[in-house]
Amino acid sequence: MTSEQPPAAASRPSRGLVLAVSAVLAVLLAVVATVLLWPEKKPVAPAPPPAPSKAPPVPTPTPTPTPTPTRTVPYTFLPVGSCFDHPQLNKTVTKPEARPCEGEHDGEAIADLLLPDGLTGDSQIGKAMREGCQPAQAAAEARQGGGGPYYGYPFGPSMTYYQQGWRDFTCTLTASNRPGGVRLSGHLR
């Protein structure tokens, strides 16, 4: 038995294949070296603060309080001193509307108060508002020096808004308790 040995040239890869593999390895080596040796970006130092000036510091103005509430109440609520017309007193409006106090109007806001917690119905809310307004109403009537009668008329939340946490209500004073009655023509005293 004789065995034949293949020629040595047949067992070696072709020269083109060797060059192609070498080229791929060189490219991979270059990519790896680039990734590993790439310089890191260093953050740029912030600019130095400006040099202090020789001028005296300017005082910061003190903020002044805003005279009106910053939130919007989802029902009729008037700041003290606001004048208004109301549909139960004036047939020309369908909802309470602010009016200039210099012209004719139905009433004026005399106090803004908060309802207590724990009320369970619209009737309790109405009673709490009427009782809460009594001191402000008596004081406002006394300042008018007679010429009445005057009527207290509170604006506040329904039970739906009360259950949502709204407690603000407005006490007002009117010169009438019926449509077409006496109207105010200026600010109350």
Beta-strand percentage? 5-15%
Task: Give me the Rg, rounded.
Answer: 43 Å
| Average pLDDT figure | 81
- H/E order of the elements? HHEEEHEHE
List the helices and strands and how they pair.
Blueprint: H1 8-11, H2 15-37, E1 83-85, E2 97-99, E3 107-114, H3 122-143, E4 151-152, H4 159-163, E5 168-174
Antiparallel strand pairs: 1-2, 1-3, 3-5, 4-5
Q: What does it look like?
A:
By secondary structure, the chain is of the alpha+beta class. It contains four helices and five strands. It has helices at 8-11, 15-37, 122-143, 159-163, and strands at 83-85, 97-99, 107-114, 151-152, 168-174. The chain has a five-stranded antiparallel sheet, with helices on one face.
Short synopsis of the structure:
29% of the residues lie in helices and 12% in strands.
